[in-house]
Structures are given as structure tokens and as C-alpha cells.
Amino acid sequence: MTTGATTPGNRDGHERTAGTGTAPPPDDAAVEAEAPQQAVAEDDRLLRAMADLDNLRKRFYREVTREREAERARVAAAWLPIVDDLDRALEHLPDDNGFTAGVRAVRDHALVVLAGLGFPRFEPLGERFDPMRHEAVSAVEADAPAGTVVAVVRPGYGSGEVILRPAAVVVAREPERSG
Predict the structure, then answer these.
(1) Predicted local confidence at residue 45, as pLDDT
(2) pLDDT by residue (tens digit) across 145-163?
(3) CA 167, CA 123: separation in Å to the nearest integer?
(4) Which domains does the chain show, CATH number per domain?
(5) What is the β-pairing status of strands 162-165 and 156-159?
(6) Distance between CA 150 and CA 142 in Å, rounded?
């Protein structure tokens, strides 16, 4: 068995040495010299944690904004077939009818709601064809410069760079030359 002090709570009956080989207590001057370095390191860790939190908050805000915009577009897109059906109904109803006025009022209200969601209706008749806003469904010879929208088959919805649905259009083309 080893000689030395027995540690308290020794249940196995063996003696253990305690306190041998320990370092002397730290010098007060060394502790005081390390204190500013530790404070700087703690300040750095705190600043990094605050910056990480700020970046997380900004990323969360961007993701929430993106999801809101995507959901708004999904809801608005679900209404487009209904507005199209109301337009088709108005094409076939007589103009001097109270029922027609009611259908027109419902359609107009739906257009106001879509515009409020950021997707106003546009019918680009006479505009230059823009593949970002228009979908060409046909090209015809017409008395208009080539590349001009000469008929709107289905209106588009959106504004600026956010287009919910491009307008389906007929575009003027150059006349074929015979000869």
C-alpha cells in the first residue's frame, strides 16, 4: 500500500495520496496581467454573439417576407380562373340587364382586390411585345409595326418585375414578301 493521507470517503480501504504534485497558487501580478486580456476576449465573444443574433434576425425577416409574398401570389393566382370566368360570362350576357350589372360589379370588385394584393390587371394593346410581361399566342400581319401587340386574348396581372400571369397576346409581324 501507498503511504500518505487517506482521502475522505475511501470505501475500498486503500490509502490514496493527496496533494502531491500540485502547482503553487498563482501570482497576483500574473492574474492582474491576464484580466484585461480576458475582458477583451469576453467583449469579443459578446460582440460576435450580438452580430450573430442580428444576422439571424435579418435572415428571419427576409424569409418571412419572401414567404408572405409567395403566399399572396398563390392566393391571387387561385382567383384568376374565377375572374376569367366572370369575364367570359360578361361577354355573353346582354348589357341592359340587372344581372349583368351584378356580375360586372363582382368582377370589378375582384379586380380591385387583385390590385390591392399587388397584381393589377393590364391589357397591353398597342404596346411593344415584352416577353417578360406578354405571352405571344399568335403573330399576324397587321397595320402596326412588327412586334406590336395588336390583340389581347387574355389580360395579364402584375406590375413591374412581379408578374402573376403574363398577358396572352397577338403580335404584329412583318408582311411576307412575295416574289
Answers:
(1) 93
(2) 999 999 999 999 999 889 9
(3) 7
(4) 27-118 (3.90.20), 120-179 (2.30.22.10)
(5) antiparallel
(6) 8
Closest CA to 132 of 141, 122, 142: 122
Return phi, psi of residue 41, to 5°.
-65, -40
Residue 147 has what DSSP assignment?
T
Helices (H), 93-165: 98-116
**Number of C-beta neighbours around residue 149 at 10 A:** 22
The pLDDT of residue 34: 76
Confidence (pTM)? 0.66
Average confidence score pLDDT of the chain: 86
Q: In whole angstroms, how far apart are CA 45 and each of 35, 40, 51, 52, 147?
A: 15, 9, 10, 10, 61
Which has the closest alpha carbon to 72: 135, 115, 111? 115
CA atoms of 6 and 29, how far apart (whole Å): 35
Average pLDDT over residues 89-115: 93
CA separation for the pair 15, 18 (Å, rounded): 10
Contact status, residue 15 vs residue 4, Cβ threshold 8 Å = yes
